[in-house]
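User: Here's a chain of 403 residues. Predict its fold as tokens.
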Amino acid sequence: MCTFNGILKEYPWISIDSFLTTNCQVSQVFFISHIHTDHLRGLDEPIFAEYITNNRSIRIYCSEASRHFLSILPAYKHLSQFYSIINVDQPYTIENPMDKNIAITVTCFGSGHCPGSLMLLFEGSHGTVLYTGDFRLYSHQSNRHRIILSKKPIDTLYIDMTFFEPSIRQLPEREQACQELIHFIEQYDNRYFYLKTSARVGYEYIYTSLYQHFGILIHVNSEQYHLYDYLPQVQQALTIDAHGTRLHACWPKCSCAKSSIKIVLSVLWFTLQQQQQFNSPLIQISTDYYRLCYSLHSSYNEICTFIKQISPTHIHPIALPNQITPSRFNELLKQLGIDQFPTIYFSPSNFEQQIKRRYQTIENNNSNDDNDELDFDCGQNQENNEKQLYKRISNLQQPPTKK
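Assistant: Prediction complete.
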């Protein structure tokens, strides 16, 4: 669940990843950490378009890759003139448009989540704040991360803690999951494969690795293909010719992939199977139906390693496991040597809007998930599908039982 409304408590004139009415009422500067739709809430709404059009000094800061993506996506390209690039590792001073005497220094770093994803470091008169956005840093990577090496004392850490649960101590590294996928495909020379993804971006390592190993292009739809005009090293692994390949990641599924082996690239399903131990990132669910544990978020151990190395004074989670309670959260923080006062209490922030829509993994194993629109903004039934997904999440009491 999301536990952050987008407004920095220390600098309320700044909002990150939220463009709702509440944000417009108090913020004049906006940041986008990455382009997954749960971090663009309200950006496509007429209310925000009217707000920013009537206040043309307001800017939306993001990475160069994110600006490219947003400028060609139909739901967000109308705001192209307001997207401003902020470069990685280059400190940048930003003034409050409503008070030129107030300014902060912003430095951004890669977050390892998806193309263009950023961590944001804010330094000003009300303390030093680090916002991780969604991130995936392996434990052996974090000690080489620039924010760690900078040794800057962090007053408040706004951090993605999606899998902050000791039962999710480890998740396969993406390289490990990809190697398992390659080994599996190697066993079926003449079969078609359908890779079910649930977000626009984040699977580039899969695409390029499959292409490099097999020399086979991956079929995607035209919108997805041209999304990578900015990243030719990814685009060269893709094709819009459905008949020229046996590897498909198209949405919706094309006719060539109808009788394929289906592999859902996901992680939440695996984290819900707490009573099971998996010996492989790739699990067979039924005939020609598999799941690959492929996580764009840090595991519990990776989160803990990052927190210990940052050593912040205060922690504000931007996302937490749905089942965690405030007391449990503070207990886990104490185990990391962080005894916050006052104790943090939280509640879901706009929960129905904050569904992690890139995950399609809470459906039971026998359901047909081909029609879940999720993060693709396509199809006339998107709103109904999203409501059904929210209902399934709300009603979820126990992990699904595999038959």
